[in-house]
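Risk register update: the risk of archive-format incompatibility is retired. Evidence:
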Amino acid sequence: MGTATNKTVINGVYETNKMRVRLSEDRVTKHFKPTTNATLRYRRDREGLRLLSNEDRFPTLLSHDDKSQTLTMTRLPGQAVNQLFARELPQLRALVDTILDSGVARHAMPLRDILRDENGTLRMVDFERTTLRQDVWAPAWWIAKRVTQYHLYRTINQVDGTQLSEKEQRFLRRASMLRRGLQPLRPIKESLKQRRLSRALARAA
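Archived output:
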């Protein structure tokens, strides 16, 4: 994990309402605060890191504390990218191929989770918003894998669409149309999320 560009780091620490992250020279300690879905996000991140710890270009999980919901992992070199270049897209494909082969599917692929070092090598961090493969034939895994591919193809299309095959372009068009069709349901989803958060805070008070 490197330094995210959209967070202010003070004395090696950046903090949000969901987590507190401490950066040292060779490691990152990530504490999940007791908020809605914190346990689920912690477990996904922990297991995603565990599955990818033996793979190049991903953090290695060093230790974890389930009680405090804290992860310690190696710190990767590089900074979060602001944009990708066409020459880097094969690297991005390789990263996505690796996580899917390892049984980790991402729900999103923000640029802040992609690091670039001084040699131009790309790496990937943060796996709390993922689906983990329990059964290769399970519908949830199949859908999550396709969601990951959608985000990959969309990113490639934004940088250099000529690097997508005709089949990938067709998939991207269909997935984009489906996503637009589901947008009207988003306010309902957000309302339900806020209600769950309010109930959780009320119980904690």
